[in-house]
Amino acid sequence: MPASSETSHDLTLSGIRKQFITPGHEKVTALDGIDLAVEPGTLVSVIGSNGAGKSTMLSAIAGNLLVDSGRVLIRGEDVTAMPSWRRIQRVSRVRQNPQDNMASTLTIEENFALALAGKRGRFALRRPGRVKIREIAAEKLKPLGMGLEDRLSAVSGMLSGGQRQAIAVAMASLGSPAVLLLDEHVAALDPNSAARVHEVTERIVREQRITTLMVTHDMSHALEHADRLLMMHQGQIVLDLAGASLVGVTPRDLQERFAALSGGSLSDAALLSADPGPTKEQVIGRV
Ligand SMILES: Nc1ncnc2c1ncn2[C@@H]1O[C@H](COP(=O)(O)OP(=O)(O)OP(=O)(O)O)[C@@H](O)[C@H]1O
Ligand SMILES: [Mg+2]
Prior knowledge:
By secondary structure, the chain is of the alpha/beta class.
């Protein structure tokens, strides 16, 4: 029986390690002992420089790769050895590029049909009919306020990146997964669309209280939307802020913390965000 602290969390990672062997036979430690417990309904932002291990951590949770050691628990159930196709009812993932999240040659409605089929499992005896699928899709899309519920017959590839990513998040929320994984899901969008998709994402995860891990390089977004913020570096979680410790933290503070923790220069820290915003001294100087 799992301990009660594990059953009361939607997600528990303990001692996760993962090494890759490069084509040049070098060992890369992508995850170096990750311990994490996330309470239900928490929106966690995950930041860190390129190669820090963020996507590998999400893959370990989704089951897209098997870890070398450690355990992954979802709602107290040990899924460490469970393949990704069996985790699909527990975990949803939205990737950076819209074409990876849906079939561009299919309509919105057809993509919803596929997503629903995946969520229901291949052994589901009764599949929803077309009318029901349209009803479910419209019900999911209407609250986004983008008019997509009136375009269910539109071919997905003809939609903008922002529209497709908003649909991807809506589809990912089907069946109320225990954990939603967002891997830089707005990074390929222009700033206005990115802000819109963030807004839509937050609405969906808050309304459905879905435990969410959101990887982003945009520290303003990371701070604006999160209940908790993790910073990763060299396969480890080097900073974990929540509650009072997160209040009033600025992108600049994060860059400074990153520089201090990684022993890196500010130019390394700049990898975390294109625009860290003004320093406190600059703000004071403007007044
Ligand atoms: N399939 C793989 N084979 C070999 N090395 C890999 C593989 N996947 C990831 N790595 C290595 O593992 C480390 C962590 O990679 P990961 O993709 O998790 O980083 P990330 O934090 O998501 O970075 P980014 O911000 O660039 O997306 C990197 O050094 C990367 O090169
Ligand atoms: Mg990544």
